């Protein structure tokens, strides 16, 4: 299977938070989206591994993406398994040959998100090296970073106005994470997190002149596609 987009996260729900609307939009336009979680979030304050797997599968279905790939690298221990995680992602990149790769941006309150972004950057580079690892080398066109927590100044934004409901329907699948209740541990996710996230999407939309948007940082300088006049000489 070949993918137009490969989105990688440290935990189930990372990708959906940062770019759920973009995934829904891509899928609606006939693009194949593969999502991969490096850990099963076994150290999460709420929800079991089994719950998270079911939730992420349900969310992917809502967004129109392929069923998520779930690796078993250690939650809060990605740096200890850095070499193995890079090798696994290089193998995946060479298999699905994505046009674009997305990973978490490093400015985030959760260290795992930044570590995941570093690992993806390494894999993005190494996948294009002919003598690295096994399989035929492949270099995607671009690596972009999505934001999970906080508010960064993005390099570009994607209009998700028509896909906001779909994004938050997918996030609602993660009841173990975003719903408070009896026998639940209070975390930043259970305390109005989705309301704040929706406000961020609307703020970014306002900045770009649309209703809602998701912001991204580019690994390299973007070239504006300025229309050029044909040279008739």
Description:
This protein is of the alpha/beta class. It has one domain: 3-Layer(aba) Sandwich (Rossmann fold). It has seven helices and seven strands; from the N terminus they run E-H-E-H-E-H-E-H-E-E-H-H-H-E. The protein has a seven-stranded mixed sheet with strand order 3-2-1-4-5-7-6, with helices on both faces. Helix 4 (111-126) links the parallel strand 4 and strand 5 (142-146). It is globular, with a radius of gyration of 18 Å. The mean pLDDT is 94. It comes from Alkalicoccus daliensis. Pfam families: PIG-L. GO terms for molecular function: deacetylase activity; hydrolase activity, acting on carbon-nitrogen (but not peptide) bonds, in linear amides. This is Bacillithiol biosynthesis deacetylase BshB1.
What are the key terms here?
Rossmann fold, 7 helices, alpha/beta, 7 strands, 38% helix
Counted beta strands: 7
Percent helix among the residues?
A: 25-40%
Helix count from the secondary structure assignment: 7
CATH superfamily: LmbE-like
The CATH topology is Rossmann fold
What is the CATH-assigned architecture? 3-Layer(aba) Sandwich
Which structural category do the helix and sheet elements fall into?
alpha/beta
Major sheet strand order:
3-2-1-4-5-7-6
CATH class reads Alpha Beta
Q: State the major sheet.
A: 7 strands, mixed
Distance between the termini: 46 Å
User: SSE order in H/E notation?
Assistant: EHEHEHEHEEHHHE
Any idea how many domains? 1
* Percent of sequence in beta strands: 5-15%
Mean pLDDT: 94
């Amino acid at each position: 299977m070949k993918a137009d987009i490969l989105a990688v996260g440290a935990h189930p729900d990372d990708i959906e938070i940062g770019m759920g609307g973009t995934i829904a939009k891509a899928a609606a336009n006939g693009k194949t989206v593969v999502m991969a979680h490096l850990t099963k979030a076994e150290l999460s304050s709420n929800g079991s591994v089994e719950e998270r797997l079911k939730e992420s599968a349900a969310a992917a279905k809502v967004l129109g993406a392929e069923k998520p790939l779930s690796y078993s690298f250690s939650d809060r221990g990605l740096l200890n398994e850095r070499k193995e995680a890079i090798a696994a992602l290089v193998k995946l990149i060479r298999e699905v040959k994505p046009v674009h790769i997305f990973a978490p941006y490093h400015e985030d309150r959760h260290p795992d998100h930044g570590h995941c972004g570093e690992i993806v950057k390494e894999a993005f580079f190494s996948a294009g090296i002919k003598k690295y690892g096994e399989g035929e080398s492949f270099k995607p066109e671009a690596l972009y970073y999505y934001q999970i927590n906080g508010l960064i100044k993005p390099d570009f934004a994607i209009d998700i106005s028509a896909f906001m409901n779909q994004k938050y329907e997918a996030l609602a699948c993660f009841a173990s994470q975003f719903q408070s209740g009896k026998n639940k541990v209070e975390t930043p996710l259970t305390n109005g997190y989705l309301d704040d996230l929706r406000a961020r999407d609307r703020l970014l939309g306002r900045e770009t002149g649309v209703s809602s948007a998701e912001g991204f940082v580019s690994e390299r300088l973007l070239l504006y596609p300025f229309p050029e006049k044909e040279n008739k000489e």
